[in-house]
Amino acid sequence: MGLKGDSMRVNKLVLKNFRNYDYLEADFVANVNIFIGDNAQGKTNILEAIYLGAFGRSHRTSNEDDLIAWNQQNAVVDISFSRQGVPNKLGFRFLRDKNKENLLNDFTVKTRDIIGSLNVVLFSPEDLWLIKGVPALRRRFLDIEISQAVPAYYRHLLQYGRILHQRNNLLKKIRERKANVDLLETWDEQLTKTAVLIINKRMESLKKLSMLANLMNRRITNNKENLQLSYFQAGAGENFPEDLGEWFIKSLKNDRQQDIDRGSTGIGPHRDDIILYTNGRDLRNFGSQGQQRTGILALKLAELEFLKAETGEYPVLLLDDVMSELDGQRREHLMTFIRDKIQTFVTATEATLFPSVKQGQYYRVKDGRIAE
After folding, report:
1. In what order do the strands lie in the sheet containing 107-109?
2. Bridge partners, residue 365, by sequence
3. Residue-wise pLDDT tens for the chain (372 aa)?
4. SS3 of residue 124 by DSSP
5. What does each C-alpha distance from 61 to 15, 30, 184 come to in angstroms?
6. Residues 146 and 268 placed together within one structural domain of the fold
7. In terms of domains, do 131 and 244 share one?
8. Which of 312, 330, 350 lies at the terminal end of a domain, its last residue?
9. Cα(24)–Cα(16) distance, integer angstroms
10. Rounded to the nearest 10 degrees, what angle do helices 184-220 and 151-175 cross at?
11. Containing structural domain, residue 172
């Protein structure tokens, strides 16, 4: 049974010397593709290759040489996919000790130009730390979703990072009496302009995500629990200033000496956080493990609906060994939600984790080879 026309899909994946795959050429026609095998056989490597197509980088390592088979000097990843029913192709050429080459429909492009071409949502056991973990995890979660929906946002993030780096370097020089404090004026103005763009987009997107996540959470809990997402701004908390730009540049000036003393900028999108509440209580501090796992599942399902609303298509869903982390009720809810409408790639060690799946293609993975 084919997918409806409102879902992206990966049609073909070719790997050469990628991780533990000497060569793989796989065509995917099923809605749900389930890869079963023991650990360290290559299941996650398939998902990693697809994720690479969405962001131009791995979600597991920042060292691209790690993606090349240990006894080889180069590697290839080719992904044929459909967007709005139109065939597209992404390619990556890795050469040891060199920067990789990115290809979009056979044209060489920069990594930032890939974002938004193939949209994916990844759900892995590490995501269960999204609530309990450090703020950087939640910022990254939000930034990834917005960047896929609005590629220009990703460019704002890159620009903000460059300005922040320059301002922090200047703060250190001022602290060492190697630069004049008046030089901060220009950087403060540039930082403010970009920060306001990022924060406003985050706020707008979080409002939509919060509504969707609450809807999912209520379905999973039979309308017993509400889930709310709130933006927490460094220096202002959840009480948002009326004029963000004016507040931001004034705060930079007020905190200037403190920033100089520590050599870094204390406020901005790089310091903000997202707070999750269940029935008005902070999920991180007061939620049970079951409530936290329900919250994460609701958040992941909300990601799918958010990208569908923003782009007109569901993204491809990657479920990396997460089924064993969810109980039967949550597994059933997840599989029921995705069935027939979202192309999904799932890894697991046991086929018994999918007792109710009546459709989809199962693959056995062993030593870098897959078989139906």
Report:
1. 21-27, 9-18, 74-83, 86-95, 101-104, 107-109
2. 370
3. 344 458 999 999 999 999 999 999 999 999 999 999 999 999 999 999 999 999 999 999 999 999 999 999 999 999 999 999 999 999 999 999 999 999 999 999 999 999 999 999 999 988 989 999 999 999 999 999 999 999 999 999 999 999 999 999 999 999 999 999 999 999 999 999 999 999 999 999 999 999 999 999 999 999 999 999 999 999 888 888 889 999 999 999 999 999 999 999 999 999 999 999 999 999 999 999 999 999 999 999 999 999 999 999 999 999 999 988 888 888 888 888 888 899 999 999 988 887 655 668 999 999 999 998
4. coil
5. 18, 29, 35
6. yes
7. yes
8. 312
9. 7
10. 130
11. 124-312
Dihedral sign for Cα 274, 279, 280, 285, please. Answer: negative
Are 135 and 108 within one domain?
Answer: no
What's the angle, vertex CA 329, arms to CA 327 and CA 330, rounded to 5?
A: 70
Are residue 142 and residue 238 in the same domain, yes or no?
yes
| pLDDT on residue 3 | 46
Residues 303, 171 share a domain? yes
307 and 324 share one domain: no
Residues 6+ apart with CB under 8 A from 140: none
Give the whole-angstrom CA distance, residue 121 versus residue 346.
Answer: 12
Q: Which residue has the tokens 């809810």?
A: 333
Distances (CA, A) of 186 to 107, 168, 249: 38, 13, 11
Query: How many domains does the chain divide into?
Result: 2
The answer to whether 329 touches 302, Cβ cutoff 8 Å, is no
Same structural domain for residues 137 and 104?
no
Residue type at 237 in one-letter notation: G
Indicate which CATH number applies to the domain containing 296. Answer: 1.20.1050.90
The CATH number given to whatever domain includes residue 366 is 3.40.50.300
Q: Rounded to whole angstroms, how far apart are CA atoms 371 and 364?
A: 5
Final residue of a structural domain among 312, 330, 354: 312
Residues 216 and 287 in one domain: yes
